Structures are given as C-alpha cells and as structure tokens.
Amino acid sequence: MKYRALTVAREFGSGGAEMARRLAARLGWKLLDNALVLQIAQRARVDPAQARQYDERVDSWLYRVARGGLWSGAFEAVAEPAQAAVFDGETMAALATQLVREAHEQGECVIVGRGGQCALRAKEDVFHLFVYAPRAARMERLRTRAGAPEDLERWMQETDRMRAEYVRRNFGCDWANPHLYHLMLDSTLGEEATVEAVLAAMRAAGEGR
After folding, report:
1. How far is CA 179 from CA 19, 107, 134, in A?
2. How many domains does the chain have?
3. Beta pairing partners, 128
4. Which of 27, 93, 112, 142 could form a disulfide with 13 if both were Cys (CB 3.0 to 4.6 A apart)?
C-alpha cells in the first residue's frame, strides 16, 4: 500500500517548511501550511490575520480558566465553528485537526505542523517526518527572515516551546518523541539530499508494507 499523505514536523529555523514545499512539488501533492490557515479563517469566518495569531499556539492558563467558566459547553463540538462564541487558540486547534483529517481523506497532501503526526497517528497510509538542525544553522537561517527580532535565541526557543506545548495539550503527545516519526532528518545535509532521502524512505517503506 502506498502512502497517501506526509506530515512534516519541524524545529523552528530548520527549513522544514521549505522542505515540505519541495516534497509537495516532487510528489505533485497539495501543500497544507499557510493554505491551512486560510482555510481555517474561511471556515470560522474570521480575518486570516486573526487565524495566524493563534496558529500552533496555546491559550494562556488564565485565559483557559476564564473561558471554562464563562463559556462552558460552548466548544464541545466544532461542527458549526462559525457559531462559536469566540475565536481563540483552542478553536483554531480544533479546526486545524478537523481540516488535517479531511485532507487525509482526500489524499495526496503534505501537512506541515499542526499536530498532523498525532492527529493521523493511527493511519497506516501516512508517512511522518521530523526535520531538525543544529542551533547555529537555525540561527543563521532565522537571521535572514524579514522582521526577525534582535533576540533570535529567545525567538527560536519560545517558538519550539509553543509548538511542543500545542502538541502536548491537544494530543497528549511529546513533540520530540522519535516514535511518532518514520524518519528524523538533519536539514544541514542539504535540501536536495534530504528531499531525496525522504522520497526514498517513502518508496521503500510503502513497498515493504
């Protein structure tokens, strides 16, 4: 059985998003990264900028306490997200998971982040990839980003912390657990080499099942 979808988890600054883009192009599959945010905004009827604000983010503890008291029961389902009393990190995560699962049903998609490796963990036709890189390489990559803050180290650590917390809180998984992935790759091996390695692994694993 061949794989129908690929999830890409990535350390911030590792170049995982670019690798996902290249993989989608090579496979001829749909890329779900920024496009996923736009789909969520459309489904929830909110501005895309507002959706980006909550993308792979977890609401603060104080907010969750207040939310539980004020809007208890309002978010027990996301079948009609447009009717939700408020749009926040929890609503964003629920919609992202819903869309990730819908994308898998359609097949031929590369899903970047958003807990895809956990949301689709039980699906045998999904290949899971984790992209990482040494600190120095990540810092150098982030330094060239438009709007990068002065404290790159803090930016990098905080983003990774939030991504890990997003996965832990929404799926009960450890983001860095190697058992969630079929393959974990250092992006400093080179973009072409890493893309070829992923494609070779997908072919070999798919043929062996």
Report:
1. 21, 23, 21
2. 1
3. 7
4. 142
Q: Which residues partner with 6 through β-bridges?
A: 110, 127
Phi, psi of 6 (to 5 degrees): -135, 125
**Which range has the worst mean pLDDT, 4-13, 62-71, 147-156, 193-202?**
62-71
Is 65 exposed, middle or buried, given 0-12, 13-18 or 19+ CB atoms closer than 10 A?
A: exposed
> Is 138:16 a contact under the CB 8 Å cutoff?
no
Secondary structure class of 77 (helix, strand, coil): coil
Tell me the CATH number at 159: 3.40.50.300
Confidence check: pLDDT of 42 > 50: yes
pLDDT class of 17 with cuts at 50, 70, 90: very high
Whole-prediction pTM: 0.84
Burial class (CB in 10 A: 0-12, 13-18, 19+), 70: exposed
Is residue 40's pLDDT more than 90?
A: no
pLDDT exceeds 70 at position 25:
yes
Residue 72: which region, alpha, beta or left (left: phi > 0; alpha: psi -120 to 50)? beta
C-alpha closest to that of 116 among 21, 10, 40: 10
CB atoms closer than 10 angstroms to residue 200:
11
